[in-house]
Inverse folding.
């Protein structure tokens, strides 16, 4: 019987089928559901022999996996593409040392980007780190392909990348679940310092072996079943990943016919298969997302073998250099390439549509935290260095409380740099609880050690909210729901030498404002921990309502906090009880006290 | 092959609705593909779910001009995805507008009724479901998704029946949510 599985779920099921023994990672859209699926199976008692954890960051995750892989355990490490930057230190060395148990590093790329800081391409990271890359083109294929990734990893003693993109991760397909594959018993860690301790001499010796292996793999992977060549003609299209699906859909819609190559292993590139594809072709259009990886390889192969084939793609301006692909752009580009009539253009609605940028949820305690700092700093020169999480949305008007956002953990350190450049500015950082443990700790140590005057605001909602509420060290739970000891952020800060640490509930606005003022006027590093749970994991409080007799329609509540539950109805302010969570922040703002809890009214 | 595009605002339950269509179709032996908006975009932003049933679909996303049906959870969102509707396709839409913060701040005067009139002017087969009435009668806005499916199923445009959805609600949802969703289903169907 077939099951409707999300690409990420399919990958998790595929890894379990392939005998994975350890799964670890850090949440990040679009990768999160892979580990979550394994954790759910574990919580249900279906996979007792699999260890699963949310690690505190991607570097830790990859190192945990390396230890288990040295012992012969099959490991899956999950992260989003920018997470790989954090894990790149162990990654680069691990490739030189190698692994014993099959090690698959799942890195989800995000063309668009839809939920990321960059449009970086993990296929390129594969080439840089010399780690082979599997690039599935559909959830169905991903389910099967991950077993091949484990096989190859174990056979050649190298970690491998498995690199789906958002539209594979978050697409659901009907998938037939297959019985588990035969499983080997891990032999355990066998001491051998000539193998597991990296030294320059070992690196030199292994570097040579890696280059030879990857050269061999260019041949071997040419016979891999998912590197396919179909069709015929003098024109060819080459594609990889989800772009293959768009290409097939577009070709069927425009009745286009040509030779077609699907590349499932962009690194090492299937050179022999590519030569077969290029034979008899005059022109090739490469259709891929992110970097021109396939395009450069084909151009290189044409040069190497003196082939007179024109390779077109991003580098020649025949395909867009940024953003995600889709059937629409495939139809357009392919029609032009194949000399077919241009597809009919579909017009956009000719009426102004509501603009809906993502916003902090109604009732989100982060809104109150930002507002408290804003009030406390009124009239003072202050900078607010934000970070990665739901609270990046604190940048939106009218809060306008995020002046910078770079990468995980950077808020704390960027605030320090601004302080050095502008000593008369009050410098704040805003960091969520999960981000604090991810890469926030070194930033705090750096500030204390270097005696920088700044205030670190920790937004502790006890969960990793943006990616769908994964537990972290401040939650009190582990990945599969096991009870864990909470790491107390306040004690961590005090232990690191932060002199003034204030813990307050941001929804008690007056106390929150006082705490911020006090922290900001302390010498050295100070911290304010705003502790209030994410509304998505707690029950709503009684909703608020506007007393129309008292309301003077000044709209201060709307102008100050931008809560989605406060709307205008016939020009009058109203609270939408389908959205209100009863946080009560608006009741502090109303100058005539017209907003209050309406007894008996609840969120609907 | 048929394609259903569900469009709404984050939190309105488009994901469950798309799962129900896909699951009911799979029960009849059909192949199903769906794709969702997940992540930052779902925080109060526009969300879409693509549902593709049957053979011959490659892309996880419905190409523009190919949706047989649009289920709009919100009038403006139904209009936004109109380029996906194929010629002769049908729209089922809730009349309840969700006003974005940008509207409250800017006085842009977003009006759901204007969106409904726009749909009707375009000579599209539109079925309007009274979203406010459903929220009032059920005492909750959380079952709007089931009500919209009820309307689409009753109209016979999504190849799954009211009975199929009833069966899904009874067997796959938590028992405490059964009654309200069965009520929502019937209420939605009553608008056809």
């Amino acid at each position: 019987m077939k099951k409707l599985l999300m690409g990420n779920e399919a990958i998790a099921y595929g890894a379990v089928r392939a005998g994975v023994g350890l799964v670890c990672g850090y949440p990040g859209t679009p990768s999160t559901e892979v580990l979550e699926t394994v954790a759910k199976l574990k919580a249900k008692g279906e996979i007792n022999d699999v260890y699963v954890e949310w690690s505190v960051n991607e570097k830790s995750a990859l190192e945990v996996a390396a230890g288990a892989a040295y012992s012969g355990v099959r490991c899956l490490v999950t992260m989003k593409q920018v997470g790989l930057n954090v894990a790149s230190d162990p990654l680069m060395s691990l490739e030189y040392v190698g692994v014993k148990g099959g090690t698959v590093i799942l890195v989800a790329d995000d063309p668009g980007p839809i939920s990321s800081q960059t449009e970086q391409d993990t296929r390129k990271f594969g080439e840089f780190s010399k780690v082979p890359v599997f690039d599935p083109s559909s959830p169905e294929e991903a389910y099967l392909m991950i077993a091949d990734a484990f096989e190859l990893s174990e056979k050649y003693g190298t970690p491998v990348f498995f690199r789906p993109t958002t539209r594979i991760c978050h697409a659901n397909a009907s998938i037939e679940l297959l019985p588990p594959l035969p499983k080997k018993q891990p032999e355990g860690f066998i001491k051998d310092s000539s193998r597991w301790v990296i030294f320059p001499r070992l690196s030199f010796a292994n570097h040579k072996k890696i280059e030879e292996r990857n050269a061999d793999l260019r041949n071997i992977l040419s016979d891999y079943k998912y590197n396919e060549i179909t069709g015929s003609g003098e024109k060819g299209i080459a594609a990889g990943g989800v772009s293959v699906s768009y290409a097939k859909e577009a070709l069927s819609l425009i009745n286009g016919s040509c030779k077609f190559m699907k590349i499932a292993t962009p690194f090492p590139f299937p050179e022999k298969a590519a030569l077969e594809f290029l034979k008899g072709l005059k022109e090739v259009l490469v259709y891929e997302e992110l970097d021109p990886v396939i395009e450069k390889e084909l151009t290189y192969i044409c040069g190497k073998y003196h082939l007179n084939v024109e390779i077109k793609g991003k580098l020649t301006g025949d395909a867009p250099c940024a953003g995600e692909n889709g059937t629409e752009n495939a139809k357009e580009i392919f029609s032009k390439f194949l000399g077919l009539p241009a597809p009919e253009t579909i017009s956009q609605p000719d009426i102004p549509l509501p603009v809906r940028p993502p916003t902090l949820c109604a009732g989100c305690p982060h809104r109150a935290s930002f507002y408290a700092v804003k009030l406390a700093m009124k009239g003072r020169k202050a900078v607010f260095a934000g970070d990665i999480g739901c609270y990046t949305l604190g940048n939106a008007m009218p809060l306008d409380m995020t002046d910078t956002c770079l990468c995980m953990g950077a808020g704390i350190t960027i605030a320090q740099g601004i302080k050095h450049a502008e000593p008369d500015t009050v410098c704040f950082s805003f960091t969520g609880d999960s981000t604090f443990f991810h890469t926030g700790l070194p930033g705090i140590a750096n500030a204390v050690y270097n005696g920088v005057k700044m205030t670190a605001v920790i937004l502790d909602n006890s969960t990793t909210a943006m990616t769908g509420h994964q537990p972290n060290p401040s939650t009190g739970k582990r990945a599969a729901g096991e009870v864990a000891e909470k790491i107390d952020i306040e004690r961590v800060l005090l232990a690191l030498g932060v002199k003034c640490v204030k813990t307050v509930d941001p929804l008690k606005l007056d106390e929150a404002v006082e705490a911020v003022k006090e922290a900001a006027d302390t010498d050295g590093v100070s911290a304010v921990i705003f502790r209030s749970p994410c509304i998505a994991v707690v029950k709503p409080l009684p909703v608020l309502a506007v007393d129309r007799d008292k309301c003077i329609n000044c709209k201060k509540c709307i102008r100050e906090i931008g809560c989605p539950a406060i709307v205008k109805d016939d020009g009058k302010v109203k609270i939408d009880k389908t959205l209100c969570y009863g946080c009560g922040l608006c009741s502090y703002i109303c100058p005539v006290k017209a907003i209050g809890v309406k007894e008996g009214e609840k969120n609907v | 092959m048929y394609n259903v595009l569900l469009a709404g605002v984050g939190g309105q339950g488009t994901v469950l609705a798309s799962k129900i269509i896909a699951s009911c179709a799979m029960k009849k032996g059909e192949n199903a593909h769906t794709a969702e908006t997940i992540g930052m975009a779902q925080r109060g932003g526009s969300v879409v779910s693509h549902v593709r049933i049957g053979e011959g679909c490659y892309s996880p996303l419905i190409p523009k001009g190919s949706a047989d049906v649009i289920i709009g959870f919100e009038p403006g969102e139904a209009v936004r995805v109109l380029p996906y509707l194929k010629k002769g396709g049908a729209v089922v839409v809730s009349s309840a507008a969700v006003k974005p913060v940008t509207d409250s701040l800017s006085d842009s005067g977003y009006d759901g009724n204007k969106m409904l009139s726009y749909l009707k002017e375009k000579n599209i087969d539109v079925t309007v479901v009274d979203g406010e009435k459903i929220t009032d009668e059920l005492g909750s806005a959380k079952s709007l998704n089931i009500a919209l499916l009820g309307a689409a199923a009753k109209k016979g445009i999504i190849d799954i029946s009211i009975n199929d959805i009833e069966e899904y609600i009874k067997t796959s949802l938590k028992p405490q949510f059964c009654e309200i969703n069965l009520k929502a289903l019937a209420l939605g169907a009553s608008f056809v």
